[in-house]
Write a structure and sequence with these properties.
Blueprint lengths: L13 E4 L7 E6 L6 H5 L10 E6 L3 E4 L7 E4 L6 H20 L6 E7 L1 H12 L4 E7 L18 E7 L7 H13 L3 E5 L7 H7 L2
Parallel strand pairs: 2-3, 2-6, 6-7, 7-8, 8-9
Antiparallel strand pairs: 1-3, 4-5
Helix pairs in contact: 2-3
Length: 207
């Protein structure tokens, strides 16, 4: 048996709030595994009060969360054909961003990734032609395959956010993860909560 790959086009979708053409700040948010970009975006609606527009791209792989019907979620990748998905995600996010901000050349870009979306966001940021003012990695281990070149750019404000009851971290893995982010000059923010987006922290970061 021989494995082959083939490049083709794919229709993706994204959701927005606010007017991207006039906003001073645009935040791009990448959801976690099994989430819907539509529902994930609702966590950031409060930012429209602060002259932000928010873009939520959806992962290109959608699936039923339970069985063969019902709620649908999306993901950015799995362990299968992983490098192909990473490359596809990079071009998807680059091209989407270019198409959306073309009419607003002075906009400030910000990036937030949650869980699996944070790994995707980190890989994208490391190679992107766009300049981001803020990067937030939320509840995610820093991916080992990233060259961390962007961490030398002092213009990028970097934050790592984690709930104190996050069920995907043990005390040992949390301590190791935080140490790694500190070495990469991320500011660490804790909140009371689980593996979730905390809207008060969102307002604190982007007020």
């Amino acid at each position: 048996m021989t494995e082959h790959s083939f490049t083709t086009t794919k229709t993706t979708r994204h959701f927005t709030i606010g007017d991207i053409t006039t906003a001073k700040n645009v935040l791009i948010v990448l959801h976690g595994y099994g989430q819907s970009a539509f529902y994930f975006l609702k966590k950031f609606e409060v930012l429209t009060l602060h002259n932000f527009a928010v873009i939520a791209p959806e992962g290109m792989h959608r699936f039923y969360l339970e069985g063969t019907s019902g709620r649908v979620g999306a993901s950015w990748m799995t362990r299968e054909a992983r490098m192909d998905d990473i490359e596809d995600n990079f071009h998807y996010l680059e091209n989407l961003t270019q198409s959306l901000i073309t009419g607003n050349p002075t906009v400030k870009l910000h990036l937030l990734g949650f869980s699996q979306g944070a790994s995707t966001a980190t890989r994208w940021l490391d190679r992107s032609k766009f300049s981001f003012s803020t990067f937030v990695s939320w509840a995610s281990v820093f991916p080992e395959d990233v060259s961390v070149s962007f961490t030398s750019n002092e213009k990028v404000k970097r934050f790592f956010v984690l709930g104190d009851q996050d069920q995907y971290f043990t005390k040992e893995s949390e301590a190791k993860c935080i140490q790694n982010y500190q070495e990469l000059h991320f500011e660490i923010i804790h909140f009371i909560g689980k593996h979730e987006i905390n809207q008060e922290i969102v307002k604190q970061l982007f007020r």
